[in-house]
Design brief:
Length: 239
């Protein structure tokens, strides 16, 4: 029978037997209804498997013993060198600058300052500087918002710092026109006044647009003269 069917379809007996096995297996698969089961599995919602909690490794009573530094045989017999350095001004703790009562401190000028008023204040400060002793170093600094309102960082002229200021961080004293002294921190690398300058600026009611003359009367002491800038309404703010 297989031979007759093979001859009719033009297939060899082997190909005919193979075709018969394929058809038989196909009927068995359809009887198992596997296509329906696979469709149901694909449509089912996937639920993520719960993650296993990670256990933290806890080392109890762990003592870390620092190992001695590695040294060559040539240096083993020499005393150990300590490279800890102490800043020269560490012993001199800067005292907090005295401040005026809160009702006398103004963080911002009432009104705005025009460029004309700024230039006029700087001109008056330069005129005041010209009347000082020319043998004593001095410079004029126009006050900006970052100097007296926010930040309170006063950058000093680079050429002045290179010539006259200390080469390391120091305590710089500011003396106002009344003779009161205010200690500030001078940062040599950044060439400016940081800690303590805010107290000086607030106590003297300095504002954006004012100008100041700094006269170096001692290696670490400035005499400061403040020149007020007029606001747009023509008024000047006094201390």
């Amino acid at each position: 029978m297989v031979t007759a069917a093979a001859e009719t379809m033009g297939m060899s007996p082997y190909e005919a037997a193979r075709e018969r096995n394929v058809q038989e297996n196909k009927r068995k698969m359809e009887a198992l209804n596997l296509r329906h089961l696979s469709a149901v599995i694909k449509e089912a919602p996937k639920t993520p498997s719960p993650l296993k909690p990670k256990r933290r490794r806890i080392i109890e009573n762990a003592v870390v013993v620092p190992s001695p530094p590695r040294r060559s045989r040539r240096l083993a017999q020499l005393p150990e060198v300590k490279y800890a350095e102490i800043a020269p001004h560490t012993a001199e703790r800067m005292t907090r600058s005295p401040r005026k009562p809160a009702d006398l401190i103004y963080l911002a000028r009432s009104g705005t300052v025009s460029m004309k008023a700024r230039l006029e204040a700087t001109r008056k400060a330069e005129e005041l500087e010209s009347q000082l002793d020319p043998d004593i170093p001095s410079f004029v600094k126009a006050m900006l918002h970052s100097h007296v309102v926010r930040g309170f960082w006063l950058q000093l002229p680079c050429h002045f710092c290179h010539t006259y200021m200390p080469k390391q961080d120091s305590i710089i004293t500011l003396v106002d026109e009344k003779g009161e002294e205010f200690a500030t921190n001078y940062l040599a690398y950044k060439k400016g006044l940081s800690g303590g300058w805010a107290g000086f600026a607030l106590c003297h009611g300095m504002h954006d647009g004012d100008a100041a003359v700094f006269q170096l009367i001692k290696p670490t002491t400035f005499k400061v003269y403040i020149v007020r800038a007029a606001s747009d309404d023509g008024s000047e703010v006094d201390e």
